[in-house]
Amino acid sequence: MKKIKEILTATTRSHWVGDGFNVRPVFAHLAFTLDISPFLMFDYAAPREFEATDQKRGVGPHPHRGFETVTIAYQGEIEHGDSVGNRGVIGVGDVQWMTAASGIIHEEFLSHEFLKKGGTLEMVQLWVNLPAKDKMLAPKYQPILSQEIPVVELPDNSGSLRVIAGNYAGIQGAATTFSPVDLWDIKIKAGKTVELNVPAGHNAMLFVRRGSISLDGNKAGTGDLAMLEREGLTISLQASEKASVLLMGGEPINEPIVASGPFVMNTEQEIRQAMMDYQSGNMGRMQA
């Protein structure tokens, strides 16, 4: 059985990214550390109402290199465009998995249709590190629609699990990854217990998006992050009320992490090179 290592309570303050995303850094002081590898950063935008407008809201063109961004839309719509020519909109239940790798410039806005009507936005964005051998590969973009994500009904009518990435009970997730990563979107019914297996030696974390869960004699409520020890295989979750939980698990990448703004590499020299490549236009340019 995996034991609780730490519970990060929902006490970190939210901040605006551009004028479209009011997010809370869930990993707090552990962001960009080996304690959470292969993950780097996790922002949660709690449900927020936006009034109808004909103005654009979001984040304009900016670069990335050395990692992947994973965006899950729970409510509302998010529009993406990048320097490779990818464009798309993700809505409720959809996922955007963007591999920056050697470098990409992209922009993220609330979709035109969403802003025209107004409504509620809720989303998460997770940064996933790349092994050194893959950091300079060509960029990649995976738009994953909700209907493309396998849904598994859990035993004893206890809930359901969407396999966004990784493998659950022999069911392969929708996303392709560069290192072993599990990303499972889990719903647990009130009064039920769910047992999950994740590989021993992997880091595993549970973000409670709704409700509360008990595990290893500890309670994690809405907005909390439960971090588990690497040892052990099984996670047992009890839900006294209906709960929605995002499991993030993965094989640690035991390599140096050097992060500066939108770049995550292994050395300071690589960071300097990334800045020069961006400034000289070698990461490409946004296409009209």
Strand content is over 45%
Q: Nearest-angstrom radius of gyration? A: 19 Å
Q: Measure the end-to-end span.
A: 52 Å
Main sheet attributes: strand count, strand direction, barrel closure: 7 strands, antiparallel
General form: globular
Explained architecture:
With 288 residues, the protein is mainly beta. It is built from 2 helices and 26 strands. The longest helix has 12 residues, at 268-279. The protein starts with a strand and ends in a 9-residue tail after the last helix. The mean pLDDT is 97.
Structure keywords:
mainly beta; 288 residues; 6% helix; globular; 2 helices; single chain
Layout of helices and strands, plus pairs?
Layout: E1 4-8, E2 15-17, E3 21-25, E4 39-50, E5 58-64, E6 67-75, E7 78-82, E8 87-90, E9 95-99, E10 104-110, H1 112-117, E11 119-129, E12 140-144, E13 151-153, E14 159-165, E15 167-168, E16 171-172, E17 181-188, E18 192-197, E19 203-210, E20 213-215, E21 218-220, E22 225-228, E23 234-239, E24 243-250, E25 258-260, E26 263-265, H2 268-279
Antiparallel strand pairs: 1-22, 2-3, 3-4, 4-11, 5-10, 6-9, 6-11, 7-8, 7-10, 9-12, 13-14, 14-17, 15-16, 17-24, 18-23, 19-22, 19-24, 20-21, 25-26
